[in-house]
Write the structure tokens for this entry.
Amino acid sequence: MGTPPTIDQHADRSTRSPAPLAKNQIEISRENELDVEAERRLYGIFRHFWHPVMYSAELTDRPARAVLCGQALVVARMAGQISVFNDLCAHRGAALSLGEVLPTGELQCAYHGWRYAGDGNCTLAPQRPDLAGQLRARVKKYAAVERYGMVWVCLEDEPYLPIPEFPQFDDPAYDKVFLPVSEWDCSPPRRTENYTDLSHFAFVHDGFLGDRTRPGVPEHRVWREDHVIRMLLDKPMAEPRDAAKNRSMAAADGQLDIIKNYHVFMPLTVLLDSANGDNHYCLFFHPTPIGPKRVRNFTIGARNYGSADTIHDEIVGWNELVYGQDKPIVESQRPEELPEDLSMEMYVRDVDTFSLTYRRFLLELIDRLDPR
């Protein structure tokens, strides 16, 4: 996806200031606009993007309920196609997710048996069958598609950006595994920042992803390519023996030297490729917003080495452990949103470059999709 900039180019573009700065300081200007009002607007624009709401395997022959940006949804397979509607019958407001999909491919409400076709139009009110085809009642239908073993939904008619790319999912050289979905009490951008933060490994994941006796952040570059933020390590990042053991990667000297390559598909999705030689271990992650301060974490693991028989224990168990270490930290952050004034937080040169790049991009999206 393009050639990364040199370190000099990156430093000039991301950290240059017209006035002298202290060696540990980063210039902050527009980012201070990401205040409480901007957070409200940011949460509102998530409606314009694709989000996974469930794994495809979770959806049976019965309808299922999901929540996206506070909107209750019913997800159903109707005539072999995924359909997503407002979870509200047009007759008396009962939840359609309590109903059933009929052999005819229609969705039937559990309360009074009203039926809906795949386009959301009511086809039958059983109490007045003579009105079939004449009723104007309908339920709101949303854009939905199945990809990467997940059901993706956009609440707006025209998604602003395409579904993020996960090429390893369709590559037969990779085995895949789906992590159990977990819910966290945090804002979606906080969780994405946590997923891309290199400097917390040594302390939150000491002995697993980092070593607190060596807390330095490896050299890395951050740049933008269209709607993607890239972050690439210039040198391998040493990970302790436990990382090698749980990922089934070789580590002759007790450590695992990893090159990490991040693709962050705006506004929330992360594709992380961790490579040790020709062995690639990938995580495709998305924190779906349930509300402004609650997310559902969807993660798919993929690797091109090891045994398919052990991938569940070695990837699912490992990541649940790491997520368990992160969860209380991220949920403790205040304010729950990104800060009202970014000067309230310390930004260190060559450590927090990704975070600042990410927040600037979020502000641009607000300007495009919710102009004042």
